[in-house]
Specification:
The structure is a single chain. This protein has helices at 22-31, 59-65, 76-89, 100-111, 125-132, 161-170, 194-206, 218-228, 237-245, 272-285, 296-308, 312-331, 349-352, 362-374, 414-429, and strands at residues 46-47, 93-97, 117-120, 137-140, 178-181, 211-214, 250-254, 265-269, 344-348, 376-377, 379-381, 402-406, 438-442, 453-456. It has 457 residues and is of the alpha/beta class. It has two domains: 22-51 and 312-456, Aspartate Aminotransferase, domain 1 (Alpha-Beta Complex), CATH 3.90.1150.10; 59-308, Type I PLP-dependent aspartate aminotransferase-like (Major domain) (Aspartate Aminotransferase, domain 2, 3-Layer(aba) Sandwich), CATH 3.40.640.10. Strand 3 (117-120), helix 5 (125-132) and strand 4 form a beta-alpha-beta unit.
Length: 457
């Protein structure tokens, strides 16, 4: 008999969490205007709002914190981080930032102008926000199959090459670069195949356009290439990473995901022109080029985390937990974006709350119901997060409407996943009694989901 797979780590430290009562949660949620971002973390039992900066660092990472070099310029911690990024990605130039959206802000300030078009696969919230705040247009070229949540497809995050070519033809002189998000978060944490990355690269060369990877979960993408794509089973994760990045001209990275640190990010590229421009903006927005908004200790931890999390065993443990939760939801016939992605389960809210109109934001109502049921905080990745069309100011209802359950790395056990699954089942069992959703009382012009005020209808 084959041995079952266990975690590739053991627990050395714990943090207590507390349960709450239904009446407490009702009061807290009302005070937060039904926006779970506004809840105090102490009011949350199992926190799945994001996997960004919420993972548990390793003993080697904690040890590296103690020898961080906090020199303003030329810190040894930067050169450790730079060497690790060089080795794993193949990119020569590295510019640290305090997190991924800061990397986007620095680079896009150099490259994106009003009226530009940025094609890619399901730009996530900050990426789209940085584009649209500059009065440019984010053009989604994800394959149509990503919209069908019940379709089993190994690389549902892929770019539709025909869509991309059409955009390149129509707006050629207004396209500064193509962006590919690996894995594709907004489409359900779905991976992009190496073959698709090659096709994007070939098309980009044909039109003389650089390719940028949004790389927050690139290691998870490499895992799926290894386990799902023909010809890669015998390759290491690090070998696959080098092959992926050889197809791009640069990357932005939120290290709070696949490098398993609480704060940090960077830009990396082989384009000296990009680097020289970003250097100046980086100094203005983030700090000097060898710290860029980060402490030396955090750069040390980032280097170790990046090295550790580009090993197969770490990734296998992490993704198996996502698959475990997916299997429990299958038992209860709860619909989610299939197959299970790399960092989260994305519940298909309109298929659960079938009586809630899209104008009443089903995924946000489901997010509220899950918190009320068991103190579990997820995140709406759907019609509210999509923001309004920058031209018509109409709500955008053309994408998926998900409740995302993002699983922090090395933080919760499968017992916690069981609690999540059963709590969802309880909501699912009473779904027909939920006939109305949410209404917006106040919203920001951009990236409204973080601060929106809602009422329950």
């Amino acid at each position: 008999m084959d041995l079952p797979l266990a975690e590739s780590w053991k627990i050395k430290m714990i943090e207590p969490i507390r349960k709450s009562t239904r009446s407490e949660r009702e009061r807290w949620l009302k005070e937060a205007h039904y926006n779970v971002f506004k809840l105090k973390a102490e009011y949350v039992y199992i926190d799945l709002i994001t996997d960004s900066g919420t993972g548990a660092m390793s003993d080697r990472q904690w040890a590296s914190l103690m020898i961080g070099d906090e020199s303003y310029a030329g810190a040894t911690s930067f050169f450790k981080m730079e060497e690790t990024v060089n080795r794993i990605t193949g990119f020569k130039y590295v510019l640290p930032t305090h997190q991924g959206r800061a990397a986007e802000n620095v680079l896009f300030s150099c490259l994106v102008k009003e009226g530009d078009y940025i094609p890619g696969n399901s730009h996530f919230d900050t990426t789209k926000g940085h584009i649209e705040s500059r009065k440019a247009f984010a053009i989604d070229c994800t394959i149509d199959e990503a919209l069908n949540t019940q379709l089993e497809l190994p690389f549902k995050g892929n770019v539709d090459i025909q869509k991309l070519e059409k955009v390149l033809i129509e707006h050629n002189d207004k396209i500064p670069f193509i962006i590919v998000t690996i894995t594709n978060n907004a489409a359900g944490g779905q991976p992009v195949s190496m073959q698709n990355l090659r096709e994007v690269s070939r098309l980009a060369k044909k039109f003389n356009k650089p390719v940028l990877f949004d790389s927050a979960r690139f290691a998870e993408n490499a895992y799926f290439i290894k386990t799902r794509e023909k010809g890669y089973a015998g390759k290491t994760i690090k070998e696959i990473c080098r092959e992926m990045f050889a197809l791009a001209d640069g990357m932005t990275m939120s290290a709070k995901k696949d490098a398993v640190v609480n704060m940090g990010g960077f830009i990396a590229t082989n384009m000296e022109e990009w680097y020289e421009q970003a250097k100046i903006k980086g100094i203005v927005f983030e700090g000097y080029v060898t710290y860029g908004g980060m402490n030396g200790r955090d750069m040390n931890a980032l280097a170790v985390g990046l090295d550790e999390n580009t090993e197969f065993e770490n990734l296998e443990t992490r993704i198996r937990q996502i698959e475990y939760l997916a299997a429990r939801l299958d038992e209860f016939e709860i619909p989610y974006q299939r197959p299970a992605g790399g960092h989260a389960i994305f519940i298909d809210a309109p298929k659960v709350l079938t009586k809630v109109a899209k104008e009443e934001f089903p995924a946000q109502r489901l997010t509220v119901e899950l918190y009320l049921e068991a103190g579990i905080r997820g995140c709406e990745i759907g019609y509210i997060l999509a923001d309004r069309d920058p031209v018509t100011r109409e709500n955008r209802f053309d994408g998926n409407d998900f409740l995302r359950l993002a699983i922090p790395r090395r933080t919760y056990t499968n017992n916690h996943m069981d609690v999540v699954a059963v709590a969802l089942k309880n909501v699912f069992d009473r779904r027909n009694s939920i006939t109305h959703g949410m209404a917006i009382e106040w919203e920001a012009e951009l990236m409204r989901h973080f601060t929106v005020k809602l009422k329950r209808l």
